[in-house]
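--- STAGE predict ---
source: upstream dedup step, 1 unique chain passed
mode: sequence only
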Amino acid sequence: MLDLLRVTNPICTPAWSLAGRAFNDLLLWLPPRATTELIGVENLPRGPAIFCPNHTHKFDFLPLRAALLHHDLQLMTWIKARDYKHPAMRWILGKGGNIPLVSRGFLIASHFASVHRRKPSEDEYRALRAHVDEGAPVDPSLTTPLDAPASIAGVALPSRLDFRSAIREAYRVLMGESLRLARQGRDAGRHQHIYPQGATSKQLTPGHPGAVQAALALGVPIVPVGVSGCREVFVAKDHPLSRGGRVVIRIAKPMTVDRSIVPPDYRPFDPEHEDAHYEALQRETDRVMQVINECCEPEYRWASDGRSDAKQGVARFYT
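--- STAGE serialize ---
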């Protein structure tokens, strides 16, 4: 993963941008034709920003990117590491102006699999995740085989690090590389595209603080976005072909993240700093998610019972 981040060019060439827009326009134009309605054009930012939409479909980035390209706005999407596993997809994503993204959960699952040659069970994953995130006690028989790794996801580690420390250090280094690419894109006038809810779900789910941390690191505003209709327009949950219909993209006014919610020495995506200021970061995230909710059509908003069809637990790291 570290090697991938170091060779990634986050700046999509004009030719690839045009090809992406043409591909999306063709998919929606082919009978039965679908349409895209962009609402809130007056709210589009003049300078670099982070677009934060809900995430309802594997390919809902296509109509969003295409609609914004028609207004000369180019997005760089932060894409989960799991999507880079297939060589062909890795090549396409590398050309399209994207940023590989890791998470603590991904590193836990991938390191476990590299040692045991199998996926962790749900119970194993949840125990390890609580241990890494919160320092919760865990059965030593579960962590001992995972201790003192020479490297995780390409990150060389100091000797004798226990499992928890190794995961947190690898995460810090890898997210530092993702931020480096994001700054490169910002300096080139590109906009970031982050899904704060993470896993896909038709109805909105709670957000994670990554987008707020990125906004603090880059010094740019967040633009909440509601994308509605992709579940009805695309033929399947993981297929980009259209069966006709209407996609509604609603853009809210840019939101500035209050820098005072964290101290001046705060380091985004550093596990110690994330943990120390989690409540403040989550409150700001909740504020963003509420605006996203208001931008969605009613059937895409918060579920009244709090349920969703998003993947849960360790299943999120496997396609």
